[in-house]
Amino acid sequence: HRQHPPTSIILHQHRQHPPTSIIMKVISATIFLASSTISTAFTTTSTPLTFGLSIPSSSKHAPPPPTTTTSTTLQMAFESADEIEMDAEDRMLKSVESVRKNLQTIRTGRANAAILDLVVVDYYGAPTPLNQMASISVPNSQQLAIDPYDKSITAEIEKAITESGLGLTPNNDGTVIRINIPTITEERRDELVKQCKSIGEDGKVALRNVRRDGVDAAKKLEKAGDIGEDNLKDAQDAIQKLTDKFVGEIETVIKSKVTEVQTV
Predict the structure, then answer these.
(1) Pairwise CA distance, residues 250 & 206, whole Å
(2) Helices 229-262, 186-223: crossing angle, 10 deg rounding
(3) What are phi and psi of 229, to 5 degrees?
(4) Which distant-in-sequence residues (6+ apart) come within 8 Å of 264 by Cβ?
(5) What is the C-alpha separation between 92 and 233, in angstroms, rounded?
(6) Alpha-carbon Rg for the chain in angstroms
């Protein structure tokens, strides 16, 4: 018969050395809990964690390829010669109007509110035309008065006029800005005449470009079989007549402006 150790000794041994199976269960539970926490952190983060590493994007999240912007003005698809002629006429009208606006900005020694039409003011970071921010009046033939709707931006308006290249010196009293139009010299008048004629030539070049685009578009229709040779010739003649008409309008407005500039 073996002698069994006292119960107190057995309890003492269990306290000092817990069974290996219990230790392993505790370690496994700890590892599982830590893994779950880490997994949750990664799956709930909307932005992937790279830890400072450069990770290439997958094709699923790659940015779309850049798109090519095409010009609707010169590559417009026409279905008939009439559409080509209407488009040409519309673009020529805009070219003539552009010439008129540019001529208005040329000062002639007399006060004219239109000379400020192209002045743009930095209005809290937004470029804004001056004539949308203030009322512009002509108190006399040698002076312009600018009354801003927002009195807090008189300094910005003054700066815009000074930097516009018009050669004007605004006087700002904090409420109204006045501009005295100086009398121009004969030499300056000659320079302004050249400037007027240059604007006119630019306008004519624009008209000829429109004519070229229209003729090319008509030729493409004829080549595709959409119109016949007679239709092509008619379209070319119509576009040429439009060109001649609007070239004449530009010459008329240029002549009028030159006369105004040369008048003392």
Answers:
(1) 11
(2) 170
(3) -65, -40
(4) 109
(5) 20
(6) 40
Task: Give pLDDT tens digits for 182-234.
Answer: 888 899 899 999 999 999 999 999 999 999 999 999 999 999 999 999 999 99
* Residue appearing with tokens 């309890």: 11
pLDDT at 71 over 60: no
Give 58's pLDDT tier (boundaries 50, 70, 90). Answer: very low
- Please give the Cα distance from 214 to 235 (Å, whole number): 8
Characterise 147 by phi-psi region: left (phi > 0), alpha (psi -120 to 50), beta (else): beta
How far from the centroid of its chain's Cα atoms is residue 196's Cα?
28
Phi, psi of 257 (to 5 degrees): -70, -40
Torsion angles phi and psi, residue 16, rounded to 5: -80, -35
DSSP bridge pairs for 172: 177
Judge residue 226's burial from the number of C-beta atoms within 10 Å of its C-beta, 0-12 exposed, 13-18 middle, 19 or more buried.
middle
The answer for 167, left when phi > 0, alpha when psi is -120 to 50, beta otherwise, is left
Query: Which pTM value belongs to this model?
Result: 0.61
Residue 4 amino acid letter: H
Q: Who contacts 196 (Cβ-Cβ below 8 Å, separation ≥6)?
A: 103, 106, 254, 257, 258, 261
156-171 confidence digits (pLDDT tens): 999 999 998 888 899 9
In whole angstroms, give the CA distance from residue 214 to residue 207. 11
Q: Give the pLDDT of residue 21.
A: 54
As a residue count, the chain comes to 264
- Cross-strand partners of 179: 144, 170
